[in-house]
Amino acid sequence: MSERRKEPLPRRIEAALAALLPEYPRSALAVAFSGGLDSTVLLVALAGLKRRPPLRALHIDHGLHPSSGAWASHCRALAARLDIPLTIAKVEVRHARGASLESAAREARYAALAAALGADEVLLTAQHADDQLETVLLQLLRGAGLRGLAAMPAVAPFGRGRIARPLLEMERAELEAWAHQHALEWVEDATNTDERFDRNYLRRSVTPLLRARWPAASRAVSRAARHAAEAQRLLDLLARVDVERASIADALAVTHLRTLPEDRRRNALRYWIVQRGHPLPDSRRLAELAGALIAARADAHPEVRWAGSRACREGNRLSLERTNDRNVTDVAVCDLEWYPRQRALELPAGLGRLELALDPHGPLDLDVIPEPLTVRLRRGGERLRLRRGGPRRLLKSLLQESRVPHADRARIPLLWSGDRLLAAADLWVDAAVRAESGQRRRGRFIWHR
């Protein structure tokens, strides 16, 4: 065992964070906290550090399991004992028939985490060396290239901040031993034993055989992933040069792309697509993009479409655009739990930030604002009572009368307590929380758009 592996686990986590984040321990950290073994160990270890950094936790409730509510309650209780602020976001997992529910849940989870992350905040996730082994194997079996085989980076840009994985050099057995040593409790997801999911099959039926023959398999594959990441960085440097030389504003010059060998052309196009924030096309479409589309006549106007993106050719210009941007009402995050007296709430999909501010002339009676509140977008049929004894008005009618642009109406965050709508952003508040004349503790919701 190396000298580093003999050190206490919290000290190893602290050393990993110091290596990954130059500004540590001043970094604002948010732990992705599922309540399972790995994230529980990470959160508890960080909470016990002598130099505890600014720290909070984020829990994503997928709503896919009957126990998801109990898991959220467990996370809330543990975070309270550790004196760590916790934000709970509920997501709706949507997937097409025949698509992977596992992948859809992961995409919804990361979309919610990215939306909840503050500017320059670092999201910490609890993936470890065993997870990295499974990820590399899955990418190999899917025929991934270097970018896929690089698997999970230790640190990378994410949302408005970064994502960091301080446990990547540690194995699950080490985390479990530490958890038992400190009598930690965590939730167990029964679906983790369902071998219909590819990752579970690898974890339960494949990797035990690999470790029986090669005990250091996790560490060796993690090292190979780092080599792949290094090679990918070199390819990205070459692609950056090629893309800069071919750039015409937001487009690429086809005449320059034609001068590149086809493998280098594909490399440049992959880089360009990723840098523009689009998903990568599959191998067949990328080959079509790098081949037939580039070779077509100038007046042919060919195009290649994939996953909501379109690359199109007009004369010497190759441009990239989205074909079906989702409406904000289709974003994965449906409900966000908010404790307004604790901190402002970052909203998903670029919707801005909500804040409860003190204001001696504000419309809110701060003594009756309940916690937590639930923040969600419009679903139709919402009503508010604007004055005591008055009628409950349809929010739709209020928006129409106030001439709020139709495109903006779906973006307004609504604040609920249970099944009662208390406020529509900073536009209207319900009589149940409206301050009376003479009320001293007053405030207002502010929606920073």
Short note summarizing the structure:
The chain has 15 helices and 22 strands. It has 449 residues and is of the alpha+beta class.
General description of the model:
- By secondary structure, this protein is of the alpha+beta class.
- It has three domains: 3-128 and 150-191, Rossmann fold (3-Layer(aba) Sandwich), CATH 3.40.50; 230-322, Chorismate Mutase Domain, subunit A, CATH 1.20.59; 339-448, no CATH class.
- 39% of the residues lie in helices and 21% in strands.
- The protein has 15 helices and 22 strands.
- Strands 5-6-4-1-2-3-12-16-19-20-21 form an eleven-stranded mixed beta sheet.
- Helix 3 (37-47) crosses helix 8, helix 10 (217-246) packs across helix 12 and helix 12 crosses helix 13 (283-295).
- The radius of gyration is 25 Å and the shape is globular.
- The N and C termini lie far apart (53 Å).
- The model is unreliable at 325-333 (pLDDT under 50).
Largest sheet composition: 11 strands, mixed
Number of strands: 22
Helical segment tally? 15
Alpha carbon gyration radius:
25 Å
Distance from N terminus to C terminus (CA atoms, Å) equals: 53 Å
Q: Which CATH architecture of the largest domain?
A: 3-Layer(aba) Sandwich
Count of individual domains = 3
CATH homologous superfamily of the largest domain, by name?
HUPs
Described by the principal axes of the CA atoms, the overall outline is globular
**How much strand content do the residues show?**
15-25%
**Alpha-beta content class:** alpha+beta
> Helix amount, in percent?
25-40%
How are the strands ordered across the major sheet? 5-6-4-1-2-3-12-16-19-20-21
Uncertain stretches: 325-333
CATH fold topology of the largest domain: Rossmann fold
**Would you state the CATH class of the largest domain?**
Alpha Beta
